[in-house]
Amino acid sequence: MSDGDGSSDAETATRSARAEESPASGGTDAVSEEPAADEAGTPETRGAEASAPAPTEIDVGDLVGPERRLDPKVRYVWVLQAAISSLIFGVMVGLPAFLVFERPFVGPAVFFLVFTVGATLAVFRYRRWSYQVREDSLFLDRGVVTQTRTVVPYVRIQHVDASRGPVERAFGLATAVVYTAGSRGADVSIPGLTPERADDLQDRLKRLAIAAEGEDAV
Predict the structure, then answer these.
(1) Please, are residues 72 and 195 in contact by the beta-carbon 8 Å criterion?
(2) How far apart are CA 126 and CA 217, in angstroms?
């Protein structure tokens, strides 16, 4: 009786040991079948990273252009401004001359003289005004009595505004105002632009300034 019980207990213990070994071995096989994670990532991940688009670079060659002149309508703006200034100046001089010296012709004479000079300068001013967006700088050439040539490196440009005064709006024009580093106000103003050209110039100078800043940092 004791021998039978001993044999039965031994067989039970053997079966229990085998049952315990079976899940362990199965778990080991399941773990071994999983692919080891690569530090560089899976092939699919590496392929996705390789095919990811590179950051967009600014092509300076597409932003530069030839020398441009102002819109012809800017002459009317300048002539109108000259007329307003002449009228104010004529009243300031002519009114005292009429009240004190009884000379009524002084005011109209001053107005005519100042307006003639202002209108003439407006025509020549338009002929001498030009600008060019170059690869490394903005170039401006202007001036009647004194010719002024200005070179504004893109790396010094802080921001660009497009403004439209009352007279400019009446003629459908705008002015591009360029601010540079270290200046107290607007360094450069380009008048006589259509609103579309002013916005385009503002965008071009902004992108060229960003490109120049990146090259300077390198």
Answers:
(1) no
(2) 39
Distance CA 201, CA 65 (A): 11
pTM score, whole prediction? 0.66
φ/ψ bin of 159: left (φ > 0), alpha (ψ from -120 to 50), beta (otherwise)? beta
Kindly state the DSSP code that residue 155 receives in the 8-state scheme.
G
Question: What would the two tokens of residue 140 be?
Answer: 């401006």
* All residues at 6 or more sequence positions from 100 whose CB lies less than 8 Å from its CB, including other chains: none
From start to end of 1-143, where are the E strands?
68-69, 130-133, 137-142
| Phi, psi for 100 (deg, rounded to 5) | -90, -50
Give residue 197's pLDDT band: very low, low, confident or very high (50, 70, 90): very high
Question: Going from the N-terminus, what domains does the chain have, and what CATH number goes with each?
Answer: 72-128 (no CATH), 131-218 (2.30.29)
Q: What average pLDDT does the structure give for the chain?
A: 79
